[in-house]
Write a structure and sequence with these properties.
Blueprint: H1 14-23, E1 34-37, E2 44-51, E3 56-63, E4 66-67, E5 71-75, H2 79-94, E6 102-106, E7 111-115, E8 121-122, H3 123-128, H4 136-150, H5 158-167, H6 171-180, H7 199-206, H8 209-224, E9 228-230, E10 239-241, E11 246-248, E12 255-257, H9 261-280, H10 284-316, H11 327-352, H12 358-361, H13 366-385, H14 393-401
Antiparallel strand pairs: 1-2, 2-3, 3-7, 4-5, 6-7, 8-10, 9-12, 10-11
Helix pairs in contact: 4-10, 9-10, 9-11, 9-13, 10-14, 11-13
Bound molecules: 5-S-methyl-5-thio-alpha-D-ribofuranose and magnesium ion.
Magnesium ion binds next to loops.
Family: Belongs to the methylthioribose kinase family.
GO biological process, one term: L-methionine salvage from methylthioadenosine
Protein name: Methylthioribose kinase
């Protein structure tokens, strides 16, 4: 592909992004290009460029030198654009069908040009609207199992594993997770964000010494267990879907971490949707049916994940540990227990921390919103404190259904 003469970083705008696309020779007619900045995430600029005559379209994503959700007072490394494009390319080695195609990257400009996925919708929106996705569990379970196994010591030569750990060292983005997921929600810190009506529940949570203790231990795992390459932020806003297709995006939080982390974030966000459906779907029968779908989504994802992981372990395991009889079951049990705890932290921080989820925040009836947020907090606390007591995926699902 052609390249650009631009060398110094400056944030793109609707004019300069067209100039960049011209230098990169992405289209044939630049006079009629339609450009929209469609970024609704917390961190980046996202431009969609469409050539009306040919209907050709691309996404040009650029990291800003600060967190957009807070503003310029929160500086943030541009290196996250490199982490994102490198990790998407790494994921494409195992699951090309589940990531957008990367067409061009420029680390100095913090720019990535990628396939436009506007035929898809963001999973969070689909779930809030009560849509079912028949292939999603199969896709996510396989995607996570392959990423974890193929980037772990169970499969890689130790030199290559350590090279990847270096390539994906991502201190600033990890610090955001260390603070926003594992620390701030458990203390009276100004980044937290919740309505006054939740203060009693929040104070009770802050006074729970066991909860803090367990959350701190989970944070230590996140800090120290460089087991496999993670997406690092696999909530339902990082997944694009259609009925048949699933694409994972926004992997700027990728790093080497504990294996239970990504699947925990996926399940936590499904669980919050499950809770929120009490407000979104008024018809009782329809709601029960949809909640059953969500339970099945968790069950099928977990079963696909474990089946795929075990198959890889048996057939492609290289490290001696994969030859120990029954050891894969121990590894999967430990992933499961970590998953329950990490999911608990995610539910708590999405309810009272800095970054929320629309599933709960969009509940129009304020009293109902508060009631359901209290239920989410209770579930999150239970998962963090009692992760060892939840023995299998059926008990995990029961804990969500009995909220
Ligand atoms: C300042 S970034 C806030 C959150 O948005 C991202 O998607 C991550 O989840 C992060 O914690
Ligand atoms: Mg994101």
């Amino acid at each position: 592909m052609a390249t650009t003469t631009k060398q110094a970083y400056t944030p793109l705008n609707e004019q300069t992004v067209i100039e960049l696309s011209q230098e990169l020779d992405l289209f044939s007619d630049y006079s009629s290009l339609e450009v929209n900045e469609i970024g609704d995430g917390n961190l980046n600029l996202v431009f969609r460029l469409v050539e009306p005559a040919t209907k050709k379209s691309v996404i040009i994503k650029q990291a800003l030198p600060y967190a957009k959700v807070v503003g310029e007072s929160w500086p943030l490394t541009l290196d996250r654009a490199r982490i994102e494009s490198d990790s998407l390319k790494k994921f494409a080695e195992f699951s090309p069908e589940h990531v957008p195609e990367i067409l061009y990257t420029n680390n100095e400009l913090a720019v990535t040009v990628m396939e436009d996925l506007s035929s898809h919708v963001i999973l969070r929106k689909g779930l809030i609207d009560g849509v079912t996705y028949p292939s999603l569990a199969q896709h996510i379970g396989t995607f996570i199992a392959k990423n974890l196994f193929y980037t772990s010591d169970f499969y890689l030569h130790p030199f290559e594993k350590k090279r990847l750990v270096q390539q994906f060292t991502n201190p600033e983005l990890c610090k955001i997770t260390e603070d926003l997921v594992f620390t701030d929600p458990f203390y009276d810190i100004e980044t937290n964000d919740y309505p006054a009506e939740l203060q009693d529940a929040v104070s009770e949570l802050w006074n729970d010494a066991t909860l803090r203790n367990k959350a701190t231990r989970l944070k230590l795992k996140f800090l120290t267990h460089a087991e496999a390459l993670l997406h690092g932020d696999l909530h339902s806003g990082s997944i694009f879907v259609t009925e048949e297709s699933t694409k994972i995006i926004d992997s700027e939080f990728a790093y080497y971490g504990p294996q239970g982390f990504d699947i925990a974030h996926f399940f936590a966000n499904i669980a919050m949707n499950h809770i929120a459906q009490r407000a979104h779907i008024k018809d009782k029968e329809k709601r029960a049916e949809y909640q059953l779908y969500l339970s099945g989504l968790i069950r099928d994802t977990w079963n696909t994940f474990t089946d795929t992981y075990k198959g890889l372990w048996r057939n492609e395991g290289v490290e001696l540990a994969t030859k120990l009889p029954g050891f894969e079951d121990e590894v999967l049990e430990s992933i499961f227990t970590d998953m329950v705890g990490f999911a608990g932290c995610e539910v708590i921080r999405r309810t009272i921390g800095l970054a929320h989820v629309a599933d709960l925040d969009s509940i129009a009836d304020f009293d109902e919103q508060i009631l359901l947020k209290k239920k989410a907090l209770k579930l999150g606390r239970d998962w963090v404190k009692n992760k060892q007591r939840i023995k299998n995926i059926e008990e995990f699902i029961t804990s969500i259904r009995s909220v």
